[in-house]
């Protein structure tokens, strides 16, 4: 393609969102709770978690900004400057998904592709993002198509398998005895009644990474379940670690394949909470590096976006 297209394709890069500062935590939490403010205890618990991982600075939002900017650069390199223009749309923070679509409309965009930073599909996660974007696009007369998943893209699997191999090297002579524990954000268990593909896609991603990295000893577990009073997918990572400890496992490498950047569920739930719990059960726990703005991860997203735009199947070889 040349870079002379008069009407570029808009690319809405979507993610869960995170507060921009400590002061924004309450508004963020209230939005997650559908307009119901958290109790003082709930707010303090979440604030303390953020305080623990970021100290006096708040760099988490920058991860998403860097990913969107890196996707723009990758699309420019692959397709030509001016063919695609990236916009951000967040689920629980500004700019919201609707803001991203509105910005496209203001810029005269007539055709758009939506992609969520999470590679695996669930009707309760990615499906919700795409529906919000589609509804807003319809209001503005923008033709919209959404990427459902790219969980087996060869560039993604290669990037993650390299991180698993690198992580195992931390254990030195104990590498062969180390168990790789793949994890992802739990969702309400009712998705199983909906034949939702989320769990199966996560297992497929994990198996592909394990095969590429030559790993035989691995399991999958869930983490970061919400406190909603309803059953969530399990077992939780702490339950899994307790069981592994009882079975004599002494070294675990966590590979959070359901997440793509350093944020609360990784920096607190794994690096602090799970690591401390593991130590208490005689297990050394390490974690792989997150993808963040990794070139291969962005290449997988760019290839998937372009594939949907031009009507070809993305690379899943």
TrEMBL record:
Return the GO cellular component terms, semicolon-separated. cytoplasm
Report the top EC class in one word.
Answer: lyase
Q: Which residues bind Fe-coproporphyrin III?
A: 16, 33, 49-50, 129
The record's EC number reads 4.99.1.9
Enumerate the UniProt keywords alphabetically.
Answer: Cytoplasm, Heme biosynthesis, Iron, Lyase, Metal-binding, Porphyrin biosynthesis
Q: What is its main location?
A: cytoplasm
**Swiss-Prot/TrEMBL catalytic activity:** Fe-coproporphyrin III + 2 H(+) = coproporphyrin III + Fe(2+)
User: Do you know which Gene3D superfamilies this protein is assigned to?
Assistant: 3.40.50.1400
| PANTHER family with a match to the protein in the record | FERROCHELATASE, FERROCHELATASE, MITOCHONDRIAL
Q: Which NCBIfam families match?
A: hemH (TIGR00109)
Q: What's the protein name?
A: Coproporphyrin III ferrochelatase
**What gene codes for this chain?**
cpfC
